[in-house]
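note to self: the first set is below, dont mix up w the second
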Amino acid sequence: MEEGEMEDFLSPKWVFRTDLEKLSKLGHRARGLHTWQVVLGCKISQDGSKEGFLHYGYDGMDFISFDKETLRWVAAQPQAQKLKQKWEDDSGWSEGNKDFLEEPCIEWLQRYLSYRKEALQRIEPPVGKVTHKEVDDHLEVLICQAFGFYPKEIQATWTRDGEICEYETLPRNVAPNSDGTYYVWLSIEIDPKERDRFRCRLEHQGLQEPLILAWKEETGERLMGL
């Protein structure tokens, strides 16, 4: 969407053809702050049927909506009656809305669905590393980090002698990267003398088998796969 569609996606200015200034000319209060909102869209059901909808709101309340089958406008507020009459007198405006909901909107939806399918099929395995932070002679913190994975779901745990350290592991945070991938980190407080007994275990759709990571003093802080 960002690479090729954003300009087209934001282009249908016809949606706001009747703006607040025109509403004020139809007898609505013009002073103060007012909002003019639109909800429009279309959907394709599993049976192949297609639907479209177009609703306007004024000052946070339903105001007027379009029935594309009858080309009529339905006023949700008494104040919308003048606008209803004006729009129904303009057959080209109603026909244009009907055409958009039945053709371009459906075409856009089908194109966006193809983007979603492509995105959902994307798989990026995590790249991991383990670092540590010394607190004192009897306490240190091991930190496991996994970068650049997609989709978001990942199983990241600390183990001690192969057993999951469920309660000792501090809460982990999964967050998005700017490129659409994710990263996660999790830490655990340990006795430095027992460091070799701890491993970080990463399980992800992009990995054929779990990635087991450890930090070893002689190699410095670098990726270790065991």
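second set (the one i keep forgetting abt)
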Amino acid sequence: MTCYLVTGRIPDLDWDEECEEITRIAAEAAAGGAGVIQVRSKPITVRQLTELSIRIAAAVAETNPRTLVLIDDRVDVAAALMPEHNIHGVHIGQEDLDPRLARAVLGDDAIIGLTTGTLELVEDANAYADVIDYVGAGPYRPTPTKNSGRDPLGLEGYPALVTASEVPVVAIGDVRAEDAADLAATGVAGLAIVRGIMQAEDPKAYAASVISQFSGANER
């Protein structure tokens, strides 16, 4: 989970071209060692999300079978595609299906992540520590990708969340490769990146750089 790609939209392409390009980027990130691909890419229809998820999961399975593919928000889509289509679980937000219900629907083997971002939300998430696998916490910086309404955490915000959380914490919110070492030092389990990888000239190299810098910081 050191490097975690959250897919995003690509403007100025028709859907077929966009779907193909997002799939290519996800497969390259997996080849670079990204441990998780979260299929988000809002706003798209449920059918588009399903199509994109199937295509990404197939490409990722071929490139790096160890990479997990998660569906954003839609437990129903994840349930429909697991395990036949190489979908491993779901990442849900505070307004989505209750994590216990998500676990009941998806089963014991699914990976379930939950969005947080404040100490209160992390502490509340501990009530679900037996049914979730990790929490996402952000934003690290202000980001146009998703307006959470929460203040940016910055480096100084993560140690308290890591200490309070009973499950691994993944940092998100305009996280970049050059932040990897500093964020690793806060105790987070990994970095969720959208634009850095989506806009990279070489997504494979970008993902590998994130992992190298993050792992190197933890080895010091």
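remember for set 2: The mean pLDDT is 95.
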